């Protein structure tokens, strides 16, 4: 199994990825944490003053949505270029190529965990209902990893053949941002559409994060299982597509 | 496959499609379809029914003019390209030296890069840790251990790469003209190291234009032209054949 055989390589690639990422800007690590906070402030201002959403703890509501969403947006966007961006590792020697996708998603995953870690003191300061249910975080985040990894496999392999896929995906991500309950409460969705709205796995996922981080509730088993199923399907489908397209990577890059 | 064979290649063929109008974006595909254009391409037969075996512990040379399929063959052996038909059997751990320093990160230090590159070449972290000092000493870069790679000269970087890659302890070494590393003193050190590996009974496959190197190192040789095997066997004869066809060709 490549995951076990190449664990040292996966880890080294992930670590060097993170080192390069956090070294390259002056503020480095701090900047990547400031980004979601600043975005939260802007959105908080816009949506609480202009749209006048009356929601308890709207700032935290927003922040959890934004941080959760960022893993999908950043993770898939960076991982898409993970094959094309390392041509030497594809054309000059053989390593299982999903390693490149895996280590890219892993480094986004670690960044995301750090962002959530910064969130925790804010939960206390801004008065969230913190309960032991917060310990569901590793479970939910692990499932989320599967979803992002599965999507990334598809994107990274397609990107080798279609180099404008990032433009398209950027638009998809923008649409997804507003089709998921990040900046508005789910109650604003008309009842007639709610059934379809809930089919978006990101809706279920973001709501799950809020349940145990913000409201101190136990996430429902049904949602967890549904998300796990989505994750498993994504990884299976992603692996299938990736293996089909991988054979000619070295000729196309 | 006999147990004394390191590599057995049977009826290997590889064809490349070279499109007349290469489309690399969705936009170009859509425009192409709207214009009613066809997906026309040239076929290029890079390898045509190539068969050969390399014995264990042998140093085997592959020679031929440009575009004869040498590099394609090496890439198939390395597992980078997939053949269209035919079989490749490899007995042992392969280390491809198609290019040195693949995956180096200029923004990381020499030390970090040794660990990164070592694991890319198939070493575990523990193994790299154990051989770390040896790598630095061989590369003669001990003083620059904590310097970022982007501040290295190209010669220093390639020395670091060679010193790391050579530690992988492979059964089979694939070499594509990379023996010219660094200054003359370091080159001599590299040749000695290769010679040492050869004496240890490892299998080496060398693809090269330098007939001198091939004659010096290889017991047996194969001549490729237009993807076909023109001759193979004892190095002296094959090189003679190569000189004959290149004289006739020009």
TrEMBL record, chain A:
<dbReference type="InterPro" id="IPR000412">
    <property type="entry name" value="ABC_2_transport"/>
</dbReference>
<dbReference type="Pfam" id="PF01061">
    <property type="entry name" value="ABC2_membrane"/>
</dbReference>
<dbReference type="GO" id="GO:0015920">
    <property type="term" value="P:lipopolysaccharide transport"/>
</dbReference>
<keyword id="KW-0997">Cell inner membrane</keyword>
<protein>
    <submittedName>
        <fullName>Sugar ABC transporter permease</fullName>
    </submittedName>
</protein>
<feature type="transmembrane region" description="Helical">
    <location>
        <begin position="26"/>
        <end position="47"/>
    </location>
</feature>
<keyword id="KW-1133">Transmembrane helix</keyword>
<feature type="transmembrane region" description="Helical">
    <location>
        <begin position="105"/>
        <end position="128"/>
    </location>
</feature>
<keyword id="KW-0472">Membrane</keyword>
<dbReference type="GO" id="GO:0043190">
    <property type="term" value="C:ATP-binding cassette (ABC) transporter complex"/>
</dbReference>
<feature type="transmembrane region" description="Helical">
    <location>
        <begin position="171"/>
        <end position="193"/>
    </location>
</feature>
<feature type="transmembrane region" description="Helical">
    <location>
        <begin position="213"/>
        <end position="242"/>
    </location>
</feature>
<keyword id="KW-0812">Transmembrane</keyword>
<feature type="domain" description="ABC transmembrane type-2">
    <location>
        <begin position="27"/>
        <end position="245"/>
    </location>
</feature>
<dbReference type="InterPro" id="IPR013525">
    <property type="entry name" value="ABC2_TM"/>
</dbReference>
<feature type="transmembrane region" description="Helical">
    <location>
        <begin position="59"/>
        <end position="84"/>
    </location>
</feature>
<feature type="transmembrane region" description="Helical">
    <location>
        <begin position="134"/>
        <end position="159"/>
    </location>
</feature>
<dbReference type="InterPro" id="IPR047817">
    <property type="entry name" value="ABC2_TM_bact-type"/>
</dbReference>
<dbReference type="GO" id="GO:0140359">
    <property type="term" value="F:ABC-type transporter activity"/>
</dbReference>
<keyword id="KW-0813">Transport</keyword>
<keyword id="KW-1003">Cell membrane</keyword>
UniProtKB/TrEMBL annotation, chain B:
<dbReference type="InterPro" id="IPR003593">
    <property type="entry name" value="AAA+_ATPase"/>
</dbReference>
<dbReference type="InterPro" id="IPR015860">
    <property type="entry name" value="ABC_transpr_TagH-like"/>
</dbReference>
<dbReference type="InterPro" id="IPR003439">
    <property type="entry name" value="ABC_transporter-like_ATP-bd"/>
</dbReference>
<dbReference type="GO" id="GO:0005524">
    <property type="term" value="F:ATP binding"/>
</dbReference>
<dbReference type="Pfam" id="PF00005">
    <property type="entry name" value="ABC_tran"/>
</dbReference>
<dbReference type="InterPro" id="IPR027417">
    <property type="entry name" value="P-loop_NTPase"/>
</dbReference>
<dbReference type="GO" id="GO:0140359">
    <property type="term" value="F:ABC-type transporter activity"/>
</dbReference>
<keyword id="KW-0067">ATP-binding</keyword>
<keyword id="KW-0813">Transport</keyword>
<feature type="domain" description="ABC transporter">
    <location>
        <begin position="28"/>
        <end position="248"/>
    </location>
</feature>
<keyword id="KW-0547">Nucleotide-binding</keyword>
<dbReference type="GO" id="GO:0016887">
    <property type="term" value="F:ATP hydrolysis activity"/>
</dbReference>
<dbReference type="InterPro" id="IPR050683">
    <property type="entry name" value="Bact_Polysacc_Export_ATP-bd"/>
</dbReference>
<dbReference type="InterPro" id="IPR017871">
    <property type="entry name" value="ABC_transporter-like_CS"/>
</dbReference>
<dbReference type="GO" id="GO:0016020">
    <property type="term" value="C:membrane"/>
</dbReference>
<comment type="similarity">
    <text>Belongs to the ABC transporter superfamily.</text>
</comment>
<protein>
    <submittedName>
        <fullName>ATP-binding protein</fullName>
    </submittedName>
</protein>
């Amino acid at each position: 199994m490549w995951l076990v055989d190449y664990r040292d390589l996966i880890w080294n690639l992930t670590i060097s990825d993170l080192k390069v990422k956090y070294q390259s800007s002056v503020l480095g690590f701090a900047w990547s944490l400031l980004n979601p906070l600043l975005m939260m402030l802007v959105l908080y201002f816009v949506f609480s003053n202009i749209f006048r959403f009356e929601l308890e703890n709207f700032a935290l509501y927003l922040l959890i949505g934004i941080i959760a969403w960022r893993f999908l947006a950043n993770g898939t966007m960076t991982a898409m270029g993970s094959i094309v961006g390392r041509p030497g590792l594809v054309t000059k020697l053989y390593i299982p190529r999903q390693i490149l996708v895996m280590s890219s998603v892993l480094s986004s995953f670690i960044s995301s965990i750090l962002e959530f870690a910064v969130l925790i003191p804010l939960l206390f300061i801004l008065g969230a209902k913190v309960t032991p249910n917060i310990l569901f975080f590793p479970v939910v985040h692990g499932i989320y990893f599967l979803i992002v990894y599965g999507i990334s496999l598809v994107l990274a392999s397609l990107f080798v053949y279609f180099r404008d896929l990032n433009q398209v995906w950027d638009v998809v991500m923008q649409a997804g941002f507003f089709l998921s309950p990040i900046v508005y409460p789910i109650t604003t969705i008309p009842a007639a559409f709610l059934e379809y709205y809930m089919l978006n796995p990101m809706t279920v996922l973001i709501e799950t994060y809020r349940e145990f981080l913000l409201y101190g509730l136990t996430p429902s088993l049904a949602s967890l299982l549904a998300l796990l199923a989505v994750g498993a399907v994504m990884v299976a489908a992603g692996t299938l597509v990736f293996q089909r397209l991988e054979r000619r990577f070295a000729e196309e890059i | 496959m006999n147990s004394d064979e390191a590599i057995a290649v049977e009826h290997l063929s590889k064809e490349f499609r070279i499109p007349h109008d290469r489309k690399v974006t969705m936009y170009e595909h859509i425009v192409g379809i709207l214009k009613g254009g066809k997906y026309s391409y040239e076929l290029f037969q890079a390898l045509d029914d190539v068969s050969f075996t390399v014995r264990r512990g042998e140093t085997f040379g592959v020679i031929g003019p440009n575009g004869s399929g040498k590099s394609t063959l090496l890439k198939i052996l390395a597992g980078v390209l997939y053949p269209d038909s035919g079989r490749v059997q490899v007995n042992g751990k392969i280390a491809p030296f198609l290019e040195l320093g693949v995956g180096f990160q200029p923004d990381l230090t020499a030390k970090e890069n040794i660990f990164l590159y070592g694991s890319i070449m198939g070493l575990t972290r523990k193994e790299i840790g154990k051989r770390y000092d040896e790598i630095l000493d061989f590369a003669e870069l001990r003083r620059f251990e904590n310097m970022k790679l982007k501040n290295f000269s190209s010669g220093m970087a390639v020395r670091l790469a060679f010193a790391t890659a050579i530690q992988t302890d492979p059964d089979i070494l694939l070499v594509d003209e990379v023996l010219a590393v660094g200054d003359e003193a370091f080159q001599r050190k590299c040749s000695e190291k290769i010679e040492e590996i050869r004496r240890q009974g490892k299998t080496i496959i060398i693809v090269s234009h330098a007939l001198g190197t091939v004659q010096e190192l290889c017991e047996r040789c194969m001549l490729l032209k237009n993807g076909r095997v023109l001759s193979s066997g004892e190095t002296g004869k094959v090189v003679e054949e190569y000189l004959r066809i290149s004289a006739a060709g020009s």
